[in-house]
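User: Can you help me understand a structure? I only have the sequence.
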Amino acid sequence: MNIAKKIIIVALLATFAGCTTTPARHAVSIKGPTYNIGSITYIPLSSVVGTYGLGYKWDSIAKKLTLHRGQTRVMLAIGSDVAIVDGTAESLNAPVKMCRSTIVIPKDFSETTLAKLFLKKIPVIRVKPKKALPSSGDYIIATIVIDPGHGGKDPGAIGRYGIREKDITLDISRRLKRHLEGACIDATLTRSDNRFISLWRRADIANKKEADFFISIHANAAHSRSAKGFEVYYLSEAVDDNARAIAAAENASLKYEDSSFGNKKPSTSLEATIWDITHHENRVESIELAKYITQTAHKALGTRDRGVKAARFYVLKGAEMPSVLIEVGFISNSQEAQKLKSAAYREKVAKAIASGIIKYKEEYEATEGFTR
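Assistant: Let's start by predicting it. Here is the structure, written out as tokens:
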């Protein structure tokens, strides 16, 4: 009999005996990235063991996890919403899951049952986690902020058949969010409806969220009706006339800004040096992510691959993390405008972008930030 069946049988027996209880909440809040799956919030194993100072054993064949410290043992199984705590069954509000290469545990269980078991035995030292928390020795990408370009009084480009950039970007961003959450990535939108958000505020949302990546979604337009294709930009000086023109078009949203727009500039030479180093590191990761998204989208969509390019987009300037701006197609081109009018095609675009991000995440985590 496998371990999952044993856990289920023990849980049923405990339920009939009236022994399964839900412990009172203890005052603890585990710091670190979270994963929203459906309506349940999960915490990665690394954050749980770090908070409570636990050891653990992982049986990859039985998909069984045992947390331990001293004589206390908590046995969990992937897909089961029952835990065996020192031989007694306890109910979880949701099953333990394996998200890609990361084991995640329901936040409620982590902050109640585990707090009751382990907080009374040693003090918990709260330390603000690093951006990339180790998960069984690997780096993780847990949080992404998605920015639907334009919105509200700023319609963006108006394309063929009357389609508006702000509507296309919002729909694709919503779909992208859903796909990323399905891959256990915490995804946040800078706007979830037709409202105006200033360019500086968009980056500020990502900064306050401490996101691992900031991704801005846009639709292209050009004087030439024959221009078409998918392209991804990272923040740098534009290297050709086309990139400068695209940046100028997207930066036109500045006319809707109030006088508070702007990014804080370094006030000392030391701050300037740190700023340069940070943005250089971010640029390297931005370029790598852009390549993954471009390659995946080109294969999935069969559209012209316009490649990875550099441009000076104001919406990316204030982001304190790697960031890219994606132009999903030209709404000034009749063929691409017709495609982007289709919900099925917008779903295909969102899925392609998500696939590129997930592929990058898997490679990044497997190689400890591409260092192996």
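Now, to help you interpret it: Confidence is low (pLDDT under 50) at residues 1-27, 121-138, 259-263, 270-277. The chain has two domains: 3-118, 143-366. Let me know which part you'd like to focus on.
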